[in-house]
Each structure stands twice: as structure tokens, then as C-alpha cells.
Design goal:
One of its GO terms (biological process) is methylation. By secondary structure, the protein is an alpha/beta fold. It contains eight helices and ten strands. The chain binds S-adenosyl-L-homocysteine (SAH).
Amino acid sequence: MRKIYIVGAGPGDPDLITVKGLKILQNADVILYTDSLVNDELIAQAKPEAEVLKTAGMHLEEMAAIMIDRVNAGKMVARIHTGDPSMYGAIMEQMALLKKENIACEVIPGVSSVFAAAAAIGAELTIPDLTQTLILTRAEGRTPVPEFEKLRDLASHHCTIALFLSATLTKKIVKELRSAGWKNDTPVAVIQKASWPDQKIVRTTLEHLDEDMQKNGIRKTAMILAGWALDPNIHDQDEFRSKLYDVSFTHGYRKGVSQ
Ligand code: SAH
């Protein structure tokens, strides 16, 4: 069956693509990529004779028509997405159009910006005894969010929350989290362009989030991580040490020592 590759490019640093994704990129005859968010340095790995197309100015049908045409001509086609294709990648609508033409898709995962952002600040998003859950979501702007997924409801879990596509919606974020009982001093980290040379890190609190975003002029390509796991001083707090490494804890690979 004819097939198109949907490849996660990773968050920006060209070295953060998977080995599998890179091989596909290097072998593809046709490459379509989101030029606003995928690093050109990565696309430069394509073979010189490859047809490389930017998709930022294209609409869905236009893009699908090109992919269908090239696959039917026997070409190897790769669609390169930023981060991991499964998060806000709009891949389902592309796949639906391709399926109608009996073209299959193979998705190659990528490093999502949420994990590049956490890495940039050396954060663990799940701290034992503090939170064991990470919610990946977005604040509601022009794109509606389903009724049962309102930020204030999600925030009632008091776990770590990662907000995509929300840099201009910080007033709303603060309001929603507050109404879920989040305190003003809850730590928030904003990572703009994680893993790019011009990466910017802003550590703040719920109270100062909006003001600090304005001050730093951050309006796009930013990941907002909120919750006590983002406390910059977390390393100093012994009670959050994982039970997994605690001497009294027995698990499958190691017998615990009782104290
Ligand atoms: N599929 C992508 C997300 C695409 S939606 C992924 O897995 O990362 C685009 C949003 O992702 C941006 O608004 C921003 O919130 C986030 N984003 C993408 N690249 C980023 C980066 N390098 N640093 C911080 N946030 C990024």
C-alpha cells in the first residue's frame, strides 16, 4: 500500500529528531514542513535533489493534493511536524483525506516541546508525594475547549499543568487557576523556543505570570508549565525524594533495607 511518513521533528534543536525520523528525512523525495516552527537546519539534511515545500501558507486540501500526487508518482513523501505530531499537529484531518485515496500514514514520534521545556529548566514534572500527574492542555482562546475540559476544572487536580498555544492568554490562565484554588505563589515556568539558540526562560509565580510575559515580550512559541513541581528550590526539600530510591523500599529489582 502507498504510504506517507508523518515525522515529529522535535522542538527545534536539529539533533532532537529521532534516528528513525532523520533517516526518513534523508531518504525522502518530497518533504513538506511547517516552516514557522521546524528548524531549517534540520531540513537541510534532505538530499539535494529532494523537493522541499513549506506549508505555512498552504491550506489543507492544497497540501493533501501535493502529497497524493507525489505518492502516486512513486515518490517517498515525508510530512515533517514540529515536536510530536500527536499534540496539536492537526494530523487527523490530513490522514482522513489520504485515507480516502487509500494512502496509509506511518507516524514517527518526536520530542514534544513540553519535554524540551522541562529539560531546559531541569524539571521533573512528576514529583513523588507532590504530584504524579501532568495535564497537557491549552487555554481557551479563539479555539474552543470542550465543556468538561475547562482549565479551572482540570486545575482542581492541583497537578502539573502544561499549556500549549496559550502565550497570549495568561490573564485567563491566572483567573482560571485561581478559581480552582491555586495560590498566588504557585511556581510557573515559561520556556520560549525551548532548545533553540534563542531560548528564553522566565521563572515566575501565578501572581506575576501575566506581567512577566509582557515584560519579556513573550507572545508565541512558549510552553507554560505551572504547579509546585516547578518550584526552583525543590532540590532543597528532602520530603520529595522518590520512594523508588528510598533504602526502605523494596521493588522488583532491589530488596529494601528496613530501618
Ligand atoms: N506538536 C507540537 C506542538 C504544536 S502546537 C509539540 O509537540 O511540541 C504549537 C505550540 O507548541 C506553541 O504555541 C507552543 O506552545 C509550543 N511549542 C512548540 N515549539 C516550542 C518550543 N520550541 N518551545 C516552547 N514551546 C513550543
